[in-house]
Amino acid sequence: MSRAPAAPPRWTATVAGEWLKLRAMRGTLVIACLGPILGTALCVLLAVAVGLESDGWSEQDRAEFDPVLFPLVSGIVSGVLLVVLGVRAGACEYRAGLVRLTLTVTPRRGRVLLAKIVVIAVASWVGFTAVTALAALAAQPVFHAYGLPYVTNADLAAGSEVRTLAAAIGLAPVFPLIGLALAVLTRSAAGALTSVLALLFAPAIAGGLLPAWWAAHVLSYLPGPASDSLSLTGSDDAGFLSPGVAVPVVAAWLALFLGAACRCLQRRDA
Fold first, then answer.
1. Is 138 domain-assigned?
2. What range does the domain containing 193 cover?
């Protein structure tokens, strides 16, 4: 008598399985420790540098200094480390051959990719928020020691800086998810990581070398500048998109990369 095929695991079990695989990967603990340490250290060092230079500031310079958004400099470190985490989540299974076992247990490949997306998105939000909060707490005593403005309840109630901070946190999963998608497409951690870092940093380098028209009409529609248009305060400057344009641009890039990864995963042999 033939046995009935086993039922596929529930959605929550698939997500839990992807979370356990992410935790078990070599390097995940290192990334989780390095992010807060390096991000906080960078923020404190820059705060000390700003404090040393503040003696020559005018009253207008002191008034324009924003202690609420300053901790976002820690996002340079945490953002890159989260990209590495997203790339590893997509590529390590191919290198170890575990992807065959994953797809045997969960034949619906789209569900597997969606579970990875959920895990990386949540990890990015939590990680970026934690590093930013630690950097903010560490920088405030430095600002106070040098007589610079520091965060008060009135600053948090002002609204505009908090909205910018919330936008930066909300956009934290964008590049880790692009890294995940490119890792599934290329099956190579090195290739995917190089591609994501190029998307992240190349527009800023090329912007100074190309005519202004290219920066305003081509480079500004790439994922990095479009995300900056939402998370930076100078969104009305040349080279930045309005929020009404930047949101669909970022969403379209995510849909393009993740859609291509889903189609590739479903059509290509494991």
1. yes
2. 11-267
CA distance readout (Å), 212 to 62, 205, 206, 207: 31, 13, 11, 8
Does 148 map to a domain?
yes
Domain total for the chain?
A: 1
Q: What is the C-alpha separation between 72 and 17, in angstroms, rounded?
A: 32
95, 37 Cβ separation under 8 angstroms: no
pLDDT digits (tens, 9 = 90+) for 66-103: 777 778 888 888 899 999 999 999 888 887 777 888 88
pTM assigned to the model: 0.87
257: alpha, beta or left? (left if phi > 0; alpha if psi -120 to 50): alpha
Residue with tokens 């903010």: 136
Residue 179 lies in a domain: yes
First-to-last alpha carbon distance for the chain, in angstroms, is 31
Tell me how far apart the alpha carbons of residues 259 and 257 are, in angstroms, rounded to a whole number: 6
- Say if 1 falls within a structural domain: no
Residue type, 268: R
**Token pair for residue 139?**
């920088």
**195-224 per-position pLDDT tens digit:** 999 888 888 787 777 777 777 778 888 898
